Amino acid sequence: MENADARRIELWRTAMGSPELLASAAGVEGAASASGVARVRAAAARVLGGSGGEAAGGELARVALTIAEGRRRLAGKWHDSERAVADSPGAQMASGTVAARWKAARFARAMGDDAELVLDLCCGIGGDLRELATTLGGRVPVVGVEVDSLRGWMASENSPGAQCRCGEGAGDATGEGVSRELAGALVHLDPSRREGGGRRRRGLGELTPGVGFVERVARAALGAGIKLAPSVDAHELPGGELEVLSEDGRLTQAVLWTGRLAPDGHGVTRATVLRRDGGREARSMAASLDQREAAAVETTDAEGASAALVPGAVVWAVDPSVERAGLLGVLASKSGGIVGHPGAGLIVGGDAREDEGWARGYELVDRCVWARDRVAGLVRTIAGDAGPVLVEVKTRGGVIDADRERAALRPRGARGGGAELTVFVQRLFGAGSPVEALITRRMRV
After folding, report:
1. S-S: 321 plus which of 73, 244, 267, 380, CB 3.0-4.6 Å?
2. 120, 191, 201, 232 from 205: Cα distances, Å
3. Beta pairing class for 269-274 and 241-247
């Protein structure tokens, strides 16, 4: 390890060893005030006992503030975020606990006598690594590989049951050492999807390590789970199963499963709905390409959907994982509903079983071509004298500014006790169709 890396890690180790310093940093949020930073610097000086001078105290204070921000980023994402060793970028890139456990369970099911180890390549701060180590419980070595020495050290601190190789040599996922191990390994790979400035990179060709390495891992390993952006184009991927994960209704990642980690075969897409609070079991739905195409033909009917969109009809807004995995028609077929257009994300009629997490149900109150004044008038009439508690606006395709219209549609002087309304404003039947408003009431399970 280079001396500079060793010094950085020692600073982090010192910060982690001082509860007083970390507590003072935890009290400083966002745009830190001068007084807040001064308190952290004073705590850092006490930790150092005067050694290293003011500059060293400033460095240690910055590390403590970085740890505090990393932990804030992980709050709600890791069940033990208050003990995590993380910086903000590492926290943003790390898998959350519920997703990491879901993936680790697949590794456990795929273990065989010939699996010599589990590799977590480009493991970052260890979001997946620690759950792999916990779930596999010592059945085989679980090894994290990370080229960034500091992040690799973070992973080792966050994943006490795993081994970590880090730095330019041992931590190079593309090196010969890893290549020799692939044939006997189950592999998790999380290639970088961010540039130095933090902007996310979407395309498969923009990953680091690149697509050639992704294909090599997919081909050579006993099985691989390759973490990708949920927006990835499935047509760019090597053969395998593509799983799209949502957590609390928000897309978080896609995973390309290959080899023995893809037991349902290639060409399958899967949507998985997870809850971070553990309040509902995970739900998962999968279909082959043939099944997806057949379901789309069976359920897509613009005229039928339009005719069914009358007051009292039920409109289902599907979880984004279902739509992103191309399973809208499959869910519509299972629930007995109609799809007006696959890009609308809505199912008309049927019963999509909200209690299973696949969709949220709304009762249609009125429908019209979008015009703000007209819709506002309808909202006032529906809400009555009390006015709505909430007017929620959902849109897609950038056809309106949802925040602006939410404020415009809420009746003046509205007070509690009225209706709760959700207004969908979008093109219901694809490009070229008019922008329409569906005024609805949220159905309760």
Report:
1. 244
2. 21, 11, 9, 10
3. parallel
- Distance, in Å, from the CA atom of 155 to the CA atom of 171, rounded to the nearest integer, reads 12
Extended strands (E) in 175-326: 185-189, 223-228, 241-247, 250-259, 269-274, 283-287, 314-318
Query: Three-class SS of residue 155?
Result: helix
CA distance 350 to 295: 15
Q: Model confidence over 184-207: pLDDT tens digits?
A: 999 999 998 755 444 555 567 778
Confidence at residue 281, expressed as pLDDT on a 0 to 100 scale: 82
> CA-to-CA distance for 222 and 184, rounded, in angstroms?
6
Give pTM, 2 decimals: 0.92
Distance, CA of 436 to chain centre: 30
Tokens standing for residue 405: 């219209």
What's the pLDDT at 422? Answer: 96
**Which of 388, 399, 390 minimizes the C-alpha distance to 425?**
399
In order of 274, 283, 338, the CA distances from 356 in angstroms are 11, 7, 19
DSSP element (H, E) containing 118 = strand 117-121
Q: What is the pLDDT of residues 281-338, one digit of tens each?
A: 899 999 999 999 999 999 999 999 999 999 999 999 999 999 999 999 999 999 999 9
Q: In what order do the strands lie in the sheet with 314-318?
A: 346-348, 314-318, 359-369, 435-442, 420-427, 390-395
- The mean pLDDT of 115-143, rounded to a whole number, is 96
**DSSP secondary-structure letter at 444?**
-
Residues 78, 127: contact at Cβ < 8 Å? yes
Q: Residue 362 to residues 354, 366, 424: CA-CA distances in angstroms? A: 10, 12, 10
> How many Å apart are CA 417 and CA 89, to the nearest integer?
43
* Residue closest to 358 by CA, chosen among 296, 272, 257: 272
Q: Where are the alpha helices (DSSP H) in 17-123?
A: 19-26, 34-48, 53-74, 88-93, 97-110
Count Cβ neighbours within 10 Å for each residue of 383-398 and write b for 16 or more, e otherwise.
beeebbeebebbbeee
| C-alpha dist (Å) from residue 132 to 54, 141, 277 | 42, 10, 20
